[in-house]
# Entry
Amino acid sequence: MRTFAHISDLHLGRDAPTDAAVERLAEALLAAEVDLVLLSGDVTHKGRPCELELFERTFAPLRSRLRLVPGNHDRAGHDVREQLMPGPRVQGEALGELFLVRVDSTAPHNKSLLDAHGELTREDLGEVEAVVERAPRGALVVLMLHHHPLKLPFDHVGERLVSLLGWPCAEELDLGQELVERLRGRCDLILHGHRHALAERRLLAPGGRALRVLNARAAPRPPGHARRWADPLRALAPPRRGAPPAPERPAGPAAPGRPGRRLTGVARPSRFRHPGARARPRARAMLTVKGPPFSRRERMRGCRAT
# Structure
């Protein structure tokens, strides 16, 4: 495996512009020839079968290299959780030199869109640790779930208000901090969605193995929020000092009417490797989507939290 992309919160079925944006995203991923696409929930907007069918049609060419977890929106309506992630709440899979742990952080209370908060139990934590132990030596260990494990800045005033009222819908997972602490030194990436603001945290373990917690933000452009929308796919690391730049893949087509939205290759994230990991003949890479720079307001709101 050479490249993988992280996307989230497609909200298919919300409106025609959103559906068109997701279709262009799928076309860009195809053009970039990614080896793996990781989708961290909210595939549909209201959990309706028609929205699920639209997703299957849109991502049919990528389906064999797509891995996903459900989000709270997928549990609304007809509840399409079982179609998206059948089986237990915690699942592990070796994908070449990457070991993926998928965690379902949703629960039946997500039937109501007002109860958007996630659920992580101590049984889930135990299962996660057991699955992570199965990761091959030297593998890049990635855990993906929908809800954010660590506290994040509010996306908008509405989230701040509901939080002041005591509603948990915008809050982090109750056991999220404990999950992160248990994974430090044993995992390389935690990928999530749910909140629609970009965020990245880098945590070090005593042995020097870094754990990054990344939010991909909503992939399509929300209606009326053009200035606040930015890269749905993030580059994880710049090139090491003195290292030659990684060769770029051919850029995908820019979205109509949106200059600069093209998928491009980025440098090898070699510093995510465990210090004792064996050398691999093929380098990993991530993808980024070039988009408009962050505005001053976004920087002040903490959209690039570290």
